Amino acid sequence: MFTANQASILFKENYHAEAHVVVNQGGTSSGKTFAIMQVLFCIACANAGQVITIVGQDIPNLKAGALRDALKIYADSEQVAGCITSYNKTERVFVFGNGTIMEFKSYDDAQDAKSGKRDYLFVNEANGIDYYMYIELALRTRKKIYIDYNPNSAFWVHDHLIGRSNTQLIISDHRHNPFLAESMRDKIESLKAVDLEQWKVYARGITGKITGLILNNWHLCDTIPPHAKLIGIGLDFGFTNDQTGCIEVYKQNGELWINELLYETGLTNPDISKRLINMGVSKRAGIVADSAEPKSIEELRRLGWRITGVKKGADSVKNSIDILKRYKLNITLNSLNLRNELGRYKWRVDRAGRTLNEPVDRWDHLIDPLRYVALNKLKIGNLGKPKSWFPYAPRSPEAGVLEGMMNGLKFGRQLEKMK
Q: Could you tell me if 287 and 232 are in contact, meaning their C-beta atoms sit under 8 angstroms apart?
């Protein structure tokens, strides 16, 4: 229906996506909304009796985004126009000759979103939509859901969808849009000289970071590389209120590759053992655990695990963070809770607004075991105390300070002559 001169690579990626939920995270002018609308028109023309709902934060946002793109596709494509019998401008509904309808709607709240069912859903600029509203819409969608947004900061898509087995993530930026004017590309790229964070979001489609985050050197990866070396497993004990957190850390090409294994409350030590066995974790793998739980460590050791308590030492939190900052951290897509913690792991601030050299002790049930591995498996050797380059010269008790220094310098010159 659309030729190579009319469709971008994003159209092909979305059209052939097999996941139930297709997430389009993109920078400005990447063409993601236009591509999704092209896909929906193809579906509408080829499938009879379908209901396709495009949802926006409000009607003005829809008119400026998805609806504007839809009207352009309708006007420019004779094939699409030939499939449509009418367009109701007031209700914003396209009616197709095969009985399919495409409607553009906004909802006041989650309760309002309970009205109506559909076959296909497109949530346009999803970071303007409430998560509970999305849940109600998703529950009433039979076939497929498309989502797009500019990643100004992490929100419910990152917390609840990305990394799930039924979700496909497509990240794009203006370079994926072959129809964009060169002047606009230059304008977008010029953000790099003004604000690096804005450039990452709008020019590269990278999720924005909260100001003051402790670890901002992490990136998403699909899986652990096949030849990466396991350097350790980190374990933090929890039970009633705190989750038991467990991660595995690999190393390859000077980078760390991290995968979440456990994040769950109510686990006993035998439960932890069974979970790890079921995940295929070898009992020969070295586990570094919270040393404040010696009884739990001993119990897991008696269950056959190679487990030791972390050796913390003075300033262990700061030291472990310093170690982790030396590496690029690659976090797997399915490590949802670890990514959530990293996006919230900040330094404490006092009442005067001054940043303290101490993390907020809240979202760290997976970051703590990551630090344990850093302390015990990635410890960078102490270079020792700095030594003076001045040669040692014994000073007699009678000599003054200045005389002692002069004697030391003379002794140094004599050594240089003897070389």
A: yes
A 10 A CB-CB count for 417 gives 6
342: its two tokens: 């990293």
Residue 395: the pLDDT is: 47
Architecture of domain 218-377: 2-Layer Sandwich (3.30)
CB 143 within 8 A of CB 119: yes
Helix residue ranges, H only, 47-114? 59-64, 66-76, 78-83
Q: At 2, which amino acid appears? A: F
Residue 172 phi, psi (nearest 5)? -140, 165
The full set of domain ranges for the chain reads 9-204, 218-377, 388-419
pTM: 0.69
What order of strands is seen across the sheet that includes strand 229-236? 218-221, 329-332, 255-264, 244-252, 229-236, 287-289, 307-309
What angle in degrees, to the nearest 10, is found between the helix axes of 316-324 and 367-377? 90
Q: Please give the CATH architecture assigned to the domain spanning 9-204.
A: 3-Layer(aba) Sandwich (3.40)
Which of the two residues, 395 and 38, has the higher pLDDT score?
38
Q: Please name the helix (run of DSSP H) or strand (run of DSSP E) that holds residue 269, with its range, or none.
A: helix 269-278
Residue of 212 and 18 predicted with greater confidence: 18
Reduced to 3 states, what is the DSSP secondary structure of residue 156? helix
